[in-house]
Amino acid sequence: MAEAEEQETGSLEESTDESEEEESEEEPKLKYERLSNGVTEILQKDAASCMTVHDKFLALGTHYGKVYLLDVQGNITQKFDVSPVKINQISLDESGEHMGVCSEDGKVQVFGLYSGEEFHETFDCPIKIIAVHPHFVRSSCKQFVTGGKKLLLFERSWMNRWKSAILHEGEGNIRSVKWRGHLIAWANNMGVKIFDIISKQRITNVPRDDISLRPDMYPCSLCWKDNVTLIIGWGTSVKICSVKERHASEMRDLPSRYVEIVSQFETEFYISGLAPLCDQLVVLSYVKEISEKTEREYCARPRLDIIQPLSETCEEISSDALTVRGFQENECRDYHLEYSEGESLFYIVSPRDVVVAKERDQDDHIDWLLEKKKYEEALMAAEISQKNIKRHKILDIGLAYINHLVERGDYDIAARKCQKILGKNAALWEYEVYKFKEIGQLKAISPYLPRGDPVLKPLIYEMILHEFLESDYEGFATLIREWPGDLYNNSVIVQAVRDHLKKDSQNKTLLKTLAELYTYDKNYGNALEIYLTLRHKDVFQLIHKHNLFSSIKDKIVLLMDFDSEKAVDMLLDNEDKISIKKVVEELEDRPELQHVYLHKLFKRDHHKGQRYHEKQISLYAEYDRPNLLPFLRDSTHCPLEKALEICQQRNFVEETVYLLSRMGNSRSALKMIMEELHDVDKAIEFAKEQDDGELWEDLILYSIDKPPFITGLLNNIGTHVDPILLIHRIKEGMEIPNLRDSLVKILQDYNLQILLREGCKKILVADSLSLLKKMHRTQMKGVLVDEENICESCLSPILPSDAAKPFSVVVFHCRHMFHKECLPMPSMNSAAQFCNICSAKNRGPGSAILEMKK
Asked: Where residue 416 sits, what CATH number does that domain have?
C-alpha cells in the first residue's frame, strides 16, 4: 500500500481510460491536486471519516475519534481528541467560530473555537449527524440538531440551560442533515423532510425512490444551492426542490410554505456527494464495473462530473475519473463531497485521501492548450487575459510557438509570427535570426525583419544579403529595393556585388542593384551611367529626384536613344538647367534626334526656338514631311525664300504652292496646282481662298480646253463668279462630262440664292417694322418732369418755383428739356423744332415729343 502511494503523483487530472485520454481533445473543466502536508501525515496512521469546509479553514474527522483543524494547504493548526471511535459528522456555523461534533459512541460536543462556551452530552445510541445553526454566534440563535434514531433540536434557554425537542422519529436512523437559513433538511430511511424553524412546521416529505438500496450503504446526499433550493441525491436519482411561499388563500391548516420539484433525473452511477456550481451541478459518483476477465463486480475509480440539469434529464459537461488512494476497497458511503462556496473549491474525501478540485483558471486553460500543442490558441488566450494570468507570459508562449513551427518545418509561418511575438525586442530578433541561420532558413525570415523600430545590428542585415547574393540575385535585388540603405554597411555590399560582377559582368539584375546601391551612397554619376547602359526606365526618375541635370549634359544623345519622348519632355521642362542651345549643339551629329527635340519645342512655343526655324525647314523636309506644311503655316520666323528653295528642290508641290501664295505670287501658285497637281477642286479652293477676280479669269482660261476642268468649274463657280462668263467661252461642239447635271446645279444654286435673298429681305422688313413699332411705343410714353430737371439752355430749374405762374416747357425724345422761350424760333422752311444739343453733336435731329404749358 505504501509503495503504491509513493508512486502516485500529486496531479489527478486522469481520465477513466488512458487511451480515451489520449484521444480526447475536450478540455477538462476542473483541475485536481491532492491535499498534502499534515493530511498526508494524518492519513498514514488514521482514516478520514468526515470533513467540513469553511472559507478560512478545514475540519477533518477521523475513524480514531480525532478532529483536526487544517489550513487550505492541509497544514494542521489544531487537534481535538473527541472520542476513541469514529467521528460521524462535524458542523460549523457561518462565522467559523463554533463547531459541533458527533461520534459513533453517542457523544455530542458543541463548543466555541475561540470562546469557553461548551455543550457535552452522551447518548445511548450512535449519533450520526449534527448541524449547528448557521448564525450560532448570535445569542438568539443558540440552536443545533442531532440525529440518531430521532432528530432532536437543542436550544439554550434564558438561564443558559439547554432544552431539547423531538422534531422527528420513527422512520429509522437519521443519516444526513443540512441547515440553511430558517430551514432544516434531513434524510432518514423513508425519505427527505424539511422543517421550518420559524413556524415550527414540517413543510414537505420527499420519499425515497429506490427502496431496494440499503440507506446505510448508499446514504442520501443533501446540499442547499441557496436559501430556498435544495438538491437531493440518493442512489442514482437527483431531485432539485424549490421551497415556495403558499398563497394566503390556500393556507387553511397547511404550512405557509411548500416544496416544488423543479427538476428530476437519473444518473449513470451511485451518488456520493453533490455541490452547486453556478447553474450546474458537481456530482461525486461511486462506480462499480464488471471485470471482463473474471466477470465479477469491482469498485472502480470514483468520478466527478459536472452536469447541466434540465427539467427531466441532464447534460454532461465534463467527467473525470479520480485515482484516490484505496479506491478498490471503498464503498459509496466512504466518499464525501464538501465545497467552499466563496472560491468554488471542491473536496473529495475518502478514508485514505483528500483531493481538491478547482475550477480551471486562464493559466490552466493555457497549460492545456500548450500540452495539446495548440500554441496559436494559447497565445490568443494569453493576449485576451493578460491581466489575469499569473504563471504564463505572452512572450514565453510566443517563443514556444515559434520553436514548435520551426520543428514542424513551417519556416515561413514561424518567421511571420516573429513580427507579432518579438515586437520591438531587438535582442530576441537577433537571437531568432541566428537560429534561422543554423537551420539554413535565413531567406524565410528576411521579409519580416524590422526595418525601423527596432533596428538590428548591421551585421544581421548584411548576413541575410550575402545569403541571397550567393543563391538568389532576384531576391537580393528585392531586399535592396525594400530595405532602407542605412540598415547595413553600403560599401560592404557594393564591394560584394562588384566581386560577383567580375564573374558575370553582364548580369542585368546585379547591375541594376549596384546602381541602386550607388544611389543610396549618393554616387549618382556611377548610378546614372549604369542605368543608361541598361536603358532602364528609372533613369529619368533618378535625374529628377536628385537633380542630376549637370551630369547629363554630355549624355543627351544616350537619353534620346533610350526614350526620345521622355528625354525631350524632361529637357524642355528644365530649360533653365540645360539650355536649348546646348541641346541642339549636342544633337548636331544626330539630325533625326535634333528634329524630334525642335519639333516638340515648336509645338510648345512657336517663338522660343525661332533662331532654329531655318534649320527646321531642312529637318522637316528630311524626316517629317507631313508636318512641314503645318510648320510653314504656323511659323512667323521662317525665311520664305529659303523654304521655297528647299521645297522646289525636293519638288514639294503643296508646300511650294503655299509659299508662292504667301509671297504674293498667287498666279504661279495656281498654275502649279493646275499643271503639277492637275487638281481642279484644289485650284477652285485656292481661288476661293484668294478671292481674286484675275485668278478666276486665269483658272477659266486654263480650263476652257479641258472638259473635266470645265465640269468642276461649273459645279463650284456659281457662288463666286457669274457662270455665264464660263458658259460663253465654251466652244461649240465640245463634249463636257455631266454637262446637264452641272447646268441643273447652277440653276439650283441660282434659285437657292434668290430664295435666300427673298428670305433675308422678308426678315429685314419684319425686323424693321418691329423696331419701328417699338420706337413709336417708346416715343408715346410720358416723361417725368420735376423740380430736379433743368433747362439745358439757361441751366435754371425747368419748373418755376411759383407753381401759380404760367410756364411752357419743351421736352425732346432725347430727354433734353428747354424752356420754350429759351429755344430759337423755327425757320420758315420747316416748322419742326430740333434739340440744339443733339444737333450740335451730330446725333441726329430730335423733334419735340412734349410741350407743357400752363
From this structure: 1.25.40
